[in-house]
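Our collaborator T.R. sent over the components below with a one-line note: 'Predict the complex.' Nothing else. No constraints on interfaces, no templates requested, no preferences about which chain binds where. So this is a plain run: every listed entity goes in together, and whatever single assembly comes back becomes the starting point for the next discussion.
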Amino acid sequence: MRVIKTKDYADMSRKAANIISAQVILKPDCVLGLATGSTPIGTYDQLVDRYENGDLDFSRVNSVNLDEYRGLDKDNDQSYRYFMNKHLFSRVNIDVAHTYVPDGSEPDSSKACADYEAIIENFGGIDLQLLGLGHNGHIGFNEPTDHFPKNTHCVDLAESTINANKRFFEKEEDVPRQAYTMGIGTIMRAKSILVVVSGADKAEILNKVINGPITPEVPASILQLHPNATIVADEAALSKTSL
Ligand SMILES: N[C@@H]1[C@@H](O)[C@H](O)[C@@H](COP(=O)(O)O)O[C@@H]1O
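Returned assembly:
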């Protein structure tokens, strides 16, 4: 696992965008795995800048997102589909028909998850998967548990995740309790992985991810085993490591 230390959030966002840009330039029809959360927003802004100045062409890119709330349809402004349209897809020349997010409006969770896993398999896997890091070490919505889930599945969100996300909803009762998420196996099968982490509030968990034991209690710790994983984190997020 490579760790790249950046000065601050803006520096992290630029460096992460440079890595994604290299992927798109080298393989214009690549499959990008994308993430939501506040951390990647700056990276998406940087990608939009590079598209606007002519450096990037997304016309042949396909994308698959990590996760989606169960029970929210794509027009709900709290859905991850809505987030992606707003922060990236509507701002670059990607073909929206080539962008995939698990179908939160599908009530049959086995179907929603099997269909999504099949989409990724049909692509022949993900070239570059972007990840944020939850405060409890989750990636996608793979919460701490006693095993590493293999494929896309339905999860009950941890209380801490519901709390962290309630700021985006009018009332706490509106925060969905379940989500569809790529499994740890789905993520680990990506050819390369890029994790963005910012801020002192992530320092403790990031130290565990990098230096701690590999355990499903810290889901992101499995990334230590990935042959091509890169963490781009700012000084504050790395402040509990010796890096
Ligand atoms: N499902 C998403 C994760 O993919 C994301 O990494 C995490 C951290 O979000 P933030 O970047 O806002 O800290 O939030 C959500 O739970």
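Summary for T.R.: The longest helix spans residues 9-26.
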